[in-house]
Amino acid sequence: MKHYKSELYFLLTLLLGVMVLSFLIFKPFLYVTLLAIFIATVFYPFYLRMLAWVRGNRGLASLFTIFIIVVILIIPLIFLATQILQEATQLYQYLLSDEGVVAFSTSMDKVIDIMGGVMPIPAGSSLDAHYYIKQGLDWLLPRLSTFLSDIALMVMNAFIFLIALYYLFKDGPKLKKTIVRLSPLQDVHDEEIFNKLTLATNSVIKGNLIIVLIQGAMAALGFFLFGVPSPVLWGAVAAVAAVIPGFGTALVVAPAIIYLLFNGETSSAIGLFIWGLTAVGLVDNILGPKLVERGMKIHPFLILLSILGGLALFGPLGFLFGPLVLSLFFALSEIYSAMHKEHQDKL
């Protein structure tokens, strides 16, 4: 008996050490693997359709699915990130130029005069928004530059991402069966956990990400049509602002309208105002209920906190991982509550 215990403790210690070493080995590729799992979960129904189309050839279906993902998702994101970096750089250089400083200071003086007619403002007050915008761009540019400049790392991560996607599609059912077999939980609870995780993942995509991306794209289109500089950059900012409860894209569209008014472009300002109310503002009201109705409903304020916290913890991918972790927390809490209730009923 003692011999058995010593062997067991030794084996557990050895297993723990190997697990730690394995984690350190896979740590550099952890985020890209999680992202692959995230994308594979969302596109798995499409993969099943491709599988039926190619008559059960899993390898071929995986390749076709990955090709579609590259065309409709990865390539547009690369162009978008490049365009945002270019426009942010141009705006940064303009704000530092003499022309930019004079134009911005003049605009801020007009804002103060208008606000002075509405509310009392102490004499000598000024809005140093130029400073805050410059600080924001100082934060944004290095991160975008780092993201785009390390070509070798990007290529390696992209390669790992695509290989992971291929095997997740091709061998996903086998991997799922292995996890269920090794799990100490009952198979029914394992299946429920997988269903909840799939629901949570799709909720993040359909209930939040797609909506804010559409709103950002519509805002960028409006900025382009009505002559607002750097439309893609401000459209991206509008997409981030769309997750803020109660205000959303108005935090970006309203200053753009004011900018057009200050520059004497009244007709464009009116057009952008109408565009913001209809094309941008109604996206959440029209698409939101249709996309969220089958997903997990989480309060918008919690979604906002999860995005901000995710960005701080995970970096750029935190925009996805933050809401996903929050969704998984609620899903697992729901499963735990059901298991606890089932146990109590048996007693």
TrEMBL record:
GO terms for cellular component: membrane. Pfam families: AI-2E_transport (PF01594). Its main location: membrane. Keywords: Membrane, Transmembrane, Transmembrane helix. It is found in: Membrane. It is a multi-pass membrane protein. The chain crosses the membrane at residues 7-25, 31-48, 60-85, 147-169, 209-228, 234-262, 269-287, 299-332. Belongs to the autoinducer-2 exporter (AI-2E) (TC 2.A.86) family. This is AI-2E family transporter. It comes from Candidatus Yanofskybacteria bacterium RIFCSPHIGHO2_01_FULL_41_21.
